[in-house]
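Researcher: Here's the sequence for the chain we discussed earlier.
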Amino acid sequence: MDPLIIQLGILGAICVCLAGIFENHPWRIAIVIFQYVVSGIIKETTSSSLTGTVLQIITTIVILKIPMFANWKYLKREGCVMVTGCDSGMGQATVVYLAETNGKENNSYDQIFAACFNAKASLAQFEKLLTSEQLKYVTVLPLDVTNDQSVEQAKSTVEQWMKNKASKAGLTGLVQFHGVAFNGPAAYMPMQMYERQIQVNFLGYVRVVQIFLPIMKQAKSGRMIFTGTGGGPCTPCPALLTAYMSSKFATEAYCHSLRSEFFMTNTNIEACMIN
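Model: Thanks. This is the structure I predict for it:
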């Protein structure tokens, strides 16, 4: 075997190990570079151009997926989960899914807390979507993510429930779906629209994390999930979405930085971004 290929193989293995240990993007970039080098060598050393192209595509896909597997950690589906933005959309669908599959598919949650801006109307919706048995696992909470007192009250409700029910695993999941979007030309949008989206889409996430983090640390392990958009990691951003995309870029940066801080301080909590 060509010594160059052996050296590249060793380099690739080192990059994968470092990606798994340090969980940061520089090693992901190194792996992507390694992918292009190896796939290029494969294409050049094969006699058939079609075979080389196929092998190149396979190698590209496999190596691109390596960082995902290197950083993946299995967390037991137990304890309590807090979901925000449950008035409609993804937040509501997540609560419905968790309630419907609880006790199945390895799901064993003590309680699912559905935080809604309009709790009364949302409860009526859940009563239509879930059976009475499934509703036993759902607690609907009023929540205004722009208000410290509202978030503190939601935290107190969650803490009190876990204390009364003696939840052993504690709060193991925090999933944030809340968000607003006002679109228009960047130069003419009122400042109030910029401020509102930053307050909800970015600072709202930060506020919920800071207030709920102490009780999440009490659990053996946990995961925070942030909701972004394709405009967070991708550029150029679409026109007329300046304020919205700006708030999502901020949330994206916050999540990645928070994840690094959790790792550096050996906090057993994962911070993840979905787009």
